[in-house]
Design brief:
Elements lengths: L1 H6 L7 H10 L6 H16 L5 H13 L1 H19 L9 H11 L1
Length: about 100
Amino acid sequence: MRHSALLAGESTDSFLKVLSLFEKQGVVDATSDWQRCRAIRNIAAHDYSTHYAQIAEHFNLLNELSDVLLMTSKRLVTWSAEQLGIFPATQDFSSEFDSVFQTSL
């Protein structure tokens, strides 16, 4: 997101500004949702606990938030195409992306 905002000529000195921009643009539903996704992801990625119930809870939360992540990614791709004229360099992963997006929502 930061790179897309930078290419759009927007301020990227804090990620909160980037999130605010994309919330206004309709890419992110709510800044708080994105921050929650990021916090839960960071806990799962950096917590080396062997408390398996807690680990399962983290991954269950990530699973619950997967729709938020998928919708945001789809809207960011669309926004980048419409606002910046930027498209994927190749279609190598397009079918996989569309397949994941279609089956998850």
